[in-house]
Amino acid sequence: MSLLAPVLLRSLRPCQYVLKVATTASVSRPPVATMASEVEKAQQASAAVKSQPTIFDKIISKEIPADIIYEDDQCLAFNDISPQAPTHFLVIPKRRIAMLDDVEPSDKDILGHLVFTASKLGREKLGSNGFRLVINNGKDGAQSVFHLHIHVLGGRQMQWPPG
């Protein structure tokens, strides 16, 4: 894959991008440029933003559209707009918790419900081959949206170490 290919691939729709990566050489993960942009977003985000409505708040209130795959009274799951794996969706609490650093003892139930829901949906969508759950926390953890969320990624062999 040439050095220019990742730049060109980013301009394609996500499904074309996944197809292209799957059919070229032995590329097993998205180009570093895609991941770097998420890190850049996290570097630009600040803790002060934690008190302002996020894009996830707007998805919960249906102010903006999302490809919602699950919803109950406590959480919402929707496909990621910039997938990093063939299957990539987010599970978020409806009651906003900005980040893991902000959890309280009273949040144990919702945290358990989020992990349970992520696992249930992961098994439904990906079967028994497995999947990865990721929670980014803070700037160095590449958290770019200050609304706690679990990434569920799968549909290919995950690499280790992840970051």
From TrEMBL:
PANTHER family from the xrefs? HISTIDINE TRIAD HIT PROTEIN (PTHR23089)
InterPro entries documented for this protein: Histidine_triad_CS (IPR019808), Histidine_triad_HIT (IPR001310), HIT-like (IPR011146), HIT-like_sf (IPR036265)
Instruction: Provide the species name.
Output: Frankliniella occidentalis
Where does the source fall among the domains of life?
Eukaryota
Classification via Pfam families = HIT
Q: Which residues form the active site?
A: 149
Return the Gene3D superfamilies for the record.
Answer: HIT-like (3.30.428.10)
Identify this protein by name.
Histidine triad nucleotide-binding protein 1 isoform X1
Q: Name one GO molecular function term.
A: catalytic activity
